[in-house]
Design goal:
By secondary structure, this protein is mainly α. The chain has helices at residues 14-42, 47-70, 90-119, 123-127, 132-154, 166-185, 189-192, 194-208, 215-219, 237-264, 271-291, 301-309, 314-329, 331-338, 342-365, 371-389, 399-405, 408-422, 426-437, 439-443, 448-456, and strands spanning 83-85, 296-298. It is a multi-pass membrane protein.
Length: 457
C-alpha cells in the first residue's frame, strides 16, 4: 500500500488545492498542446487554425478531466485522472489529414469514438485479460516508454540544435535534485508541492540566464471562445477505419493507465470502474471533436505525480481540469506556462516517470515466481522495448500493424495478454488473482448504463 498524504475523496484546504492542482497542470500541459502543434506543423496549417486546435484541446481536456474526477452519471472513473490529447492517435490523424484535411480528422475522430464507447460495455471481459502479471508488465512499459520523453526534454528537445548541451543537462539535473530533496526532506504541503517548487527553481535559473522566451505570451490572445464545427466534418471510410484501430489501441493503453492509477491511489479498479473510465474517454473524444480538437485519452504522467507526492485527491485534479478549461478560454494563461523551458520540465518529469517505472518494478516483484510468469514478463517486456527503442522495425509493415504495435505499451500489453491466454496454468492464476484482490466480483458488475436501466425497471 502506498502512503498517501491525501486520499481519493479528501478535500485539502483551498490554497493547498490550488497549488497542487497547478502542479498537475504543469505536468500535463506540455503533452496536451504538443499533439495539436505537431498536427498543425506537419499539415502546414495556418497559425490561426493551429491556435484554434490548441484551444479546443485545452478546453476539451479540462471538461473531461472534471467529469472523470467528479463523475457525471455513468461517465467518469472518479479517480484523480487527467485527460489530454493522446499521442496514440497522432499517426492516424496525420495520415487522414494529408488526404482529407482537418475536417477528415475531426469526422473520423467522432465516428471512431463509437469503438471506444461500445468497447466500454465489455470492460469486465477485457479486465479479465489483465491479471496481476499482465498489469505489472503494462505499468512497467508505461514507465519505460515515458522516460525517453523526459530525457529528450531534459536534453533540450528532440532534434534541437543544442540537444544534450551541458547547460541543458545541468539545469535539468538541478531541477531533479531539487525535487528529490524537497520530497525527501520536506514535510506536508512542502513535500506534496515538490514538482512545483522544483519547476519554479529551474524557471528562475533559466530566467537569470536569459533562456526564457516570452514570445508565446506576446502572440497569445487574451480571450477566445470555442468555435464548434468551424472546420466542418467529413467521414472518409479509410479515415474512420484508421481512427477506429487507434481507438482499439487506446482502450488497451487506457486500461493499463487506469489500473496503474488504481495502484497509485490504493483503489481496486475492477470492471465497473474501467467501464466508467473508458466510457469517459470515448464520450470525451467525441465532444472534443465537436469542439474542433483531436481525441483525448488518460494521461499516464500524472500517475507518476500521484506516486511521487502522495496526493490522490480527485477534487484536486478536478480543479486542474478547471485550470485547463480557463487556459483554453484565456490562451494567454496557457502561453505563460508554455514559457517554461523544456529542460526544466524534463528534470521534473524524469522523476515522475521513473516513479511509474518503480511502481511497475514493485508489481513485478510481487508476481509469483514461476517459469510461466517469467516467460510472460520476459517476452512481453522484450517485445515492448523492441518497438520503443527501434520503431523502424515496423517501417515495412502494413499500416494497420504499425498502428497497433507502434507503441511499446500496446505491444507489451498485447503480447502479455496473448501469452497469458496461451500458456498452461492460466485458470489457476486467474483463481488466485480473484481470491487475492476480490476484483472478480467487481468485474462481474454490469456496465453503469445497463445497471442504471436495471434499477429503473
Amino acid at each position: 500500500m502506498n502512503k498517501l498524504l491525501y486520499q481519493v475523496d479528501d478535500r485539502p484546504p483551498l490554497p493547498t488545492t490550488i497549488l497542487l492542482a497547478a502542479q498537475h497542470m504543469l505536468a500535463a500541459l506540455g503533452g496536451i498542446i504538443a499533439v495539436p502543434l505537431v498536427i498543425g506543423a506537419v499539415l502546414k496549417l495556418p497559425a490561426d487554425q493551429v491556435v484554434a486546435l490548441v484551444n479546443a484541446s485545452l478546453m476539451g481536456s479540462g471538461v473531461i478531466t472534471i467529469i472523470q474526477c467528479k463523475g457525471l452519471g455513468p461517465l467518469g472513473i472518479r479517480l484523480p485522472c487527467v485527460m489530454g490529447t493522446g499521442f496514440s492517435f497522432v499517426g492516424a490523424a496525420l495520415a487522414i489529414g494529408h488526404e482529407h484535411g482537418v475536417a477528415g480528422i475531426l469526422g473520423s475522430t467522432l465516428a471512431g469514438s463509437v469503438i471506444m464507447i461500445v468497447g466500454s460495455f465489455f470492460m469486465p471481459q477485457i479486465r479479465k485479460l489483465f491479471p496481476h502479471t499482465v498489469t505489472a508488465v503494462v505499468v512497467t512499459m508505461i514507465g519505460l516508454s515515458l522516460i525517453p520523453v523526459a530525457v529528450d526534454w531534459a536534453a533540450g528537445g528532440k532534434g534541437a540544435a543544442d540537444y544534450a548541451d551541458p547547460v541543458n543537462l545541468g539545469i535539468a539535473l538541478f531541477v531533479l535534485v531539487t525535487v528529490v530533496g524537497v520530497v525527501q526532506f520536506g514535510k506536508g504541503i512542502v513535500s506534496a508541492a515538490a514538482v512545483v517548487i522544483g519547476v519554479a527553481a529551474g524557471y528562475l535559473v533559466c530566467l537569470a540566464m536569459g533562456l526564457v522566451d516570452f514570445g508565446p505570451v506576446q502572440k497569445a490572445a487574451t480571450f477566445a471562445l470555442p468555435q464548434p464545427l468551424q472546420y466542418g466534418m467529413t467521414f472518409p471510410p479509410s479515415g474512420i477505419f484508421a481512427m477506429g484501430v487507434a481507438y482499439m489501441v487506446a482502450i488497451v493503453e487506457t486500461t493499463g493507465t487506469l489500473m496503474a492509477l488504481g495502484s497509485a491511489t490504493n483503489t481496486k479498479v475492477g470492471g465497473r470502474q474501467l467501464c466508467r473510465g473508458v466510457l469517459g474517454d470515448g464520450v470525451g473524444s467525441a465532444c472534443v471533436a465537436m469542439l474542433g480538437g483531436p481525441p483525448v485519452s488518460t494521461f499516464a504522467q500524472n500517475v507518476g505525480l500521484v506516486s511521487l507526492t502522495g496526493v490522490a485527491s480527485r477534487h484536486v485534479v478536478a480543479l486542474t481540469g478547471a485550470f485547463l478549461l480557463l487556459a483554453g478560454l484565456f490562451p494567454v494563461l496557457g502561453a505563460i506556462v508554455v514559457t517554461i523551458p523544456q529542460v526544466v520540465l524534463g528534470g521534473a518529469c524524469l522523476m515522475m516517470f521513473a516513479m511509474i517505472l518503480a511502481a511497475g518494478a514493485q508489481m513485478l516483484a510481487s508476481v509469483e515466481h514461476s517459469k510461466r510468469n517469467g516467460l510472460i514478463i520476459a517476452v512481453s517486456l522484450g517485445c515492448g522495448l523492441a518497438v520503443s527503442a527501434r520503431p523502424e522495425l515496423l517501417a515495412r509493415m502494413p499500416a494497420i500493424v504499425h498502428e497497433i504495435f507502434g507503441s511499446g505499451i500496446s505491444t507489451g500489453a498485447i503480447v502479455a495478454s496473448v501469452l497469458n491466454l496461451m500458456l498452461p496454468g492460466r485458470e489457476k492464476e486467474a483463481l488466485e488473482d480473484e481470491s487475492n484482490d476480490g476484483e472478480a466480483v467487481q468485474a462481474a458488475t454490469p456496465h453503469p448504463v445497463l445497471e442504471k436501466k436495471a434499477r429503473a425497471v
